[in-house]
Amino acid sequence: FAPYYVLGIPLNESYRFVAVILGFSLNYAAYFAEIYRAGIQNIPNGQREAATILGYSRVQTFHRIVFPQMVKNVLPPV
To answer: Which residue among 4, 38, 51, 53 is least enclosed by CB atoms within 10 Å?
Structure first.
């Protein structure tokens, strides 16, 4: 976008394709980040507290408690 419109540099076909792919990637990265954030925040805090009481580390809590429940919430929008 910037080289073509701001600086006036002519673009060849391969650069245009790369720019389109980069633009779509950035757009969908933000979209998927929002979906995953909502999926993680949808897990009740009681689940994390129970894992802490059981002695799970943060990594164990994520992999054994949060991640399986998050996948169930995230798959329909993806």
So the answer is: 53
